Amino acid sequence: MKQILVLVMLSISVFGLSVGSKPSSVSISEKNGGLVAGGPWKSEMLRDKVYVLFYIDPDEKSVNEHFSKALKEQEYDHSLFGSMAIVNLGATWKPNFVIEKILKSKQKEFPDTIYAKDKNKILVDAWDVEDDASNILIFAKDGTLLFYKSGKMQDADMRQAFSIIKSNL
Predict the structure, then answer these.
(1) What is the average per-residue pLDDT within 56-73?
(2) pLDDT (0 to 100) of residue 113
(3) How far is CA 161 from CA 97, 114, 140, 142, 156, in A?
């Protein structure tokens, strides 16, 4: 029984996200989505700055709005810190063209945030992030995953996230 449990735990860390390691290289482009501003989104973009990545089902967009607002209030130096929002279009019943229009206006309103769309749940499959959820991921300057939370950020999660960001800038 212990051997089965060990194998299950190893397979989770090999195929899914593991805090303290670099996730597999992923690209989202063409029919699968990509950057709202145009071109492919690549996981290699999560380098050279501390990044907070929001991977969100549009139906769950308000779940971590409180964290997003608190993050903006921190006023981090944009040469050291960046944010990305990838919308999981495959997780909603809402028409893609409506969400894409909203994303284009968001990109104009918040030019320091990188917006992308994932039409076919590429990150759900590649990184095993939660589907139909609001996911928060924090990456170090070298692309190492420092923090992962799926679902609503509680006060303790937020304190931990801000501490991780501050200590890695």
Answers:
(1) 95
(2) 93
(3) 33, 19, 12, 17, 9
